[in-house]
Fold this protein.
Amino acid sequence: MRSTTVISRPESSILATNKVLRNTYLLLSMTLLFSAATAGLAMTLNLAPFGMLSTFIGFYGLLFLTTKYSNSALGLLFVFALTGFMGLTLGPILSFYLHAFANGHELVIMALGGTGAIFLGLSAYALTSRKDFSYLGGFLMVGVLVAFLAGIGAIVFAIPALSLAVSAMFILLMSGMILLQTSQIINGGERNYILATISLYVSIYNLFLSLLQILGVFNGRD
């Protein structure tokens, strides 16, 4: 008769993981609501679209500060500063879709619904299966870099087909990032809920924009 050895995680480790997971989803919910509020403010004020340079400087500058102070209370302040800024950049994009397409409201709602369904589905799978998706890390980082450079090329050379391909790539890549990030929290690879929140927020933000662009191309009505 064979004997099997079951390796269980220490109770303290499980409690720590549950705490990080709870804090991450709570903070993520708050930052998404705050980002939606700043996007609405940008739309109300009819802000002009942010330039690529100003968006990069604002995002990476605030991301650096958030990462630097992620172990202190200041980290929370910079999390909301970063997500609020990203909401401001999102506002003019949403205004464009609402005014450029006769069914703009439908496109935005569909993109929101699709983003929510993908996030919830992937998160539920990672939580229930408890699989370790860390092996995806290297592939996803290379993929994001390639997609990012291709996206810049699509903008500089005004190639719509390439821009559409980049959006499709980002949907797949951000879906993989959600699986990776959630599994890192579950399996103890990420103990900082501020960093976990930012990672998931960025994935959700890019996923939403990519879905919105593809829906605009295939379902948009002038």
Remarks:
- Helices lie at 11-44, 52-68, 73-100, 104-129, 137-156, 160-186, 193-219.
- Residues 11-44 form the longest helix (34 residues).
- Residues 14-41+49-219 form one domain.
